[in-house]
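Query protein
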Amino acid sequence: MTTVARTSFGALRGEALDDVVVFRGVPYAASPTGERRWRPAQPVSTWTDVRDATAFGSIPPQDISPERLAKRGLTMSEDCLTLNVWTPAADDTRRPVLVFLHGGGQAQGHGSAPLLDGARLARRGGIVVVTMNFRLGVLGSLYAPDWHGADSTNLTVRDQQYALQWVRDEIGAFGGDPSAVTVAGQSSGAIAISVMLAGGCGLFDRAILQSGGLERVRSTEAAVAVAARLRALMRDDEPGVDEILAAQRGIDPGFVPPQGPFHPCIDGDVIAEHPLVVARTRSMPAIPILAGTTRDEWRIFDAAFDDGVFTEQYVRDRAQALAGDRHDPDAVVDRYRADHGPLRDVASAMVTDYHFTAPTEQFVRAHAERGNAVLRYELQWPSPRAGFGACHDSCLALVFGNLDAAPALAGNDEAARHMSDVVQSLWVDFIRGGEPWVRYDGSGGSTMLLGRESGVTRDHRSEQLAIWEGRYPAYG
């Protein structure tokens, strides 16, 4: 099997894993260090010898213990702009490509996580799978154009778009088809895709949005406030990484759900308007979108709290924060209590709906009503962990097939493996240009329910739509 890929920057030697070749730690941009720290990504220098690409690159600076890094055999550095490619062969075949953007609130995560290993998916679908690292936290999201220049904003999204351009230009060397690129993202990765779609990005041909809290694109005012706090905490003009990470820990994430202090912000350059505004008011690139959420997104986060936390007042305050002034929080709580019972379940269900399901629904509904292909799903497969339900991140184990990497998320028995087979088959069909179930055509349209009994239904939870409407008045 050919393990050498010849890019326009130089040749790379990967590692053969049975019938898949993996290229790890491939640099897609120059190191964003020194004078390049607060600058958009720049081209990587060429090389002459065959470059080894069998080890993952350093992960972006983030709040992670040295012990955990050592256990996983990883290093952490600002020199982190690398990607990883799994391919059936680095040949002249033109295979569909999946580029995956990890989640983590734009403050955590990396493309070399075991859960995101692309070997099984590449092998199953005969596709090329790409994961990547990009700048995170302060280094990727600081809004300080007066300090670092107008092009220093939203560096995380700029990195992601630069990597997607690299894929367009270079993926042919890895047996991929640059004209058949699907970008997928989970959680904050899905938010990034919504931003790119709203901005008219033409660097991908299909999109998959998994569990995106699409409301979390920050206003300019919110970004200015975070930047002011960070500048107060970072006393040096050019702080070291340890000081930057310490400053990140000093930022209050806000009431449940967290306000996402390191998510993308409206900067008038990369992001001119909130994606929910754009989706409702004008056309985005007319590409197919597959999008959905899990049934119980927020349960995994509320599992950290004792039952005593979920008092009537606490749950009412959460309803007020989520539903806004347009809705009576007591009425919201009463409605959810009728469906979910205990206050803990009510509190989690409200965040799942208002923070994940509702904005995803509004974003893709407008796209569908303009005649574009939209496939909607809800993942109902339960975690084996008591109280988690069909929780956030469980989709990752099923899509990538790496159930052994996080068995608490989706399980690792025969039934879980069958569920993973179902999900992978559907996603691969979409990546390869198909429409694996009936299109979603607007409010109450067809939705694929993925669980112990999978199938398409209409009017799924349509009664809830009334309570969602008006939640985002600022977004149209």
About this structure: The chain has a mean pLDDT of 93. The longest helix spans residues 343-369.
